[in-house]
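Input (Levodione reductase):
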Amino acid sequence: MSDNSVVGKHILITGGASGIGAESALLLSKRGASVTIADVNEVDGAILVQRINDEGGQARFCKVDVSVSQSVEMLFKSAIDELGNIDVLINNAGIDHDPKFMLEIDDATFHKNIAVNVNGVWYCMKQALAHMLENGGGHVINISSVAGIRAAPTLSAYSAAKHAVVGLTKSAAVEYARYNIRFNAVCPSFVRTPMVENVLSKLDERGKKALINANPMKRLGEPQEIAGAIAWLCTPESSFMTGHTVVLDGGMTA
Ligand SMILES: NC(=O)c1ccc[n+]([C@@H]2O[C@H](COP(=O)([O-])OP(=O)(O)OC[C@H]3O[C@@H](n4cnc5c(N)ncnc54)[C@H](O)[C@@H]3O)[C@@H](O)[C@H]2O)c1
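Output:
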């Protein structure tokens, strides 16, 4: 097996039914990993699993709401029962919110962003940790955002949640390095996924242009470009990296 191989690894991807998670599932299964795709969206998850299995890969769908701890507990039990020990967890499930100044964001929106984007990552990290400790090691890849490393005006609730994801990643990496469990975060800027298509659909032409031109490359990232970096993190080539953020932003934060 070459150093850049994911062959035979079992990779669990939350939010795997759409966008960055779905592209990651497609790429990793093409490269020989077996994937558990976990999502609230059963319809798209089932379609993706069918496609991967039809193309000769090994995938399984599991319904989960990452904001509910019992649901996450059941996900891990079922994923391990069906496809064996989990080598890599990709904590990718996430939501955003309508762009608004802080005073206009209601408490329910803030709490929902924390529930999915922070509590969801927390519950999954804890399940993965217990399992990986027993298993002798593993890697957790948390999908944060450039909104997790710098200001994101009009996205304060999302930004708070994504900063928390980076904090959890760093602390866990230092605590568990001695147990052969690594934690890294991926921080994309705007990527062409249903999440961003939805934002674009609500903007006028000037707003759309501003969003697309927000980085020096003056374009959106493609989900395949994020999946490529995630897939590299899943290989042994990233073995000395823990507690860091991989920023994929077209130069936005340079
Ligand atoms: N698209 C971007 O520009 C961008 C930029 C930076 C970070 N991100 C982050 O990347 C990740 C993936 O985003 P995307 O753009 O592919 O979005 P997406 O909306 O296409 O996919 C997100 C997936 O998460 C699932 N999900 C939402 N809530 C869930 C829950 N409670 N439990 C389980 N699954 C749930 C959705 O059903 C969906 O399939 C998110 O964490 C997002 O915050 C996206």
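The beta strands are 10-14, 34-39, 58-63, 88-91, 138-143, 181-188, 245-248.
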